[in-house]
Queue: 2 jobs
Job 1
Amino acid sequence: MKALEEYVRSIPDFPEQGIIFRDVTSVLQDADGLRLAVDTMQEKVKDLEFDVVAGPESRGFIFGTPIAYNTHKPFVLIRKKGKLPCETVERSYDLEYGQATIEMHKDSIKPGQRVLVVDDLIATGGTTEAMIKLIESLGGVVVGVVVLMELAGLKGREKIRDYRLEAAIVYPGK
């Protein structure tokens, strides 16, 4: 079997000159790559005790759900504003060009529950930081974050330095 990094397609100069885009779809489109990604992420947090797995749409759903299934834990959806049908709590945060708002059902996390956050990528850390604050607003305790890829050059780890962050692949640049 190939190394996990070999399943990630790197696309130079996308979305702009000088950027190397790390394409997760090439991992998802290969059965071995997908299995290796999920297994590697899960292995990174095998020592953590958690009650709930939470992840953002859409790729957090893709990687978080099998980890929740494998560990027999519930999976909590974190979605863009306006996508959830019941009473929600929300958190807005800054993006490079604008703002975004994410939501969770108000009853999705109970006070004191230990939460593992799963996503495909951490770059600047804005989305991850917003997810953590949203979970904590419901009384949840974030015990760790696991991602498939970390773009270390964008320093997202610094925004969540008080939390354990595990990445299956770390790219030094942007």
Job 2
Amino acid sequence: MVKKASEVQFMIFRILDKLFGVRLSETVEIISPSRIREVPLSYFYVKGIMDYRGEFLPVMSLRRRFSLDDPIDGEKFILVIKADERFGLTIDEVMGIAIVSDDKIEPSPPKVMGISSKYVSGLIKHDERQAVILDINVLFSAQTRIQLAL
């Protein structure tokens, strides 16, 4: 008996001209950034904190984290992620939802777009373009949560 591949849904988003994705099950919502307060002496990729429904939400800049920084601040949205805790990721644009069968997820090479494979769980095609699927558990590892603890 041949096992049928299961389907996985990904939220696809753009940062600069690059496509990224996270499992839809790990996303909470997409919001417009309200005032993000910078935190002195924080790590370079910590954008700051913002009020999220009466709670502080640490916000990470993926541009900074993956050295994709651009002099023009184009980040327009916050993607709220639920790992063990809630975190925000700054993104430029939401591109949509991709539904992909497990057998269509390609393994990650050692580096993709200059990003270490430890942050990448695979690659998929979205609208004929390659999207890097981020491993949220590694991106928000215990070490990162300590660095984001404010």
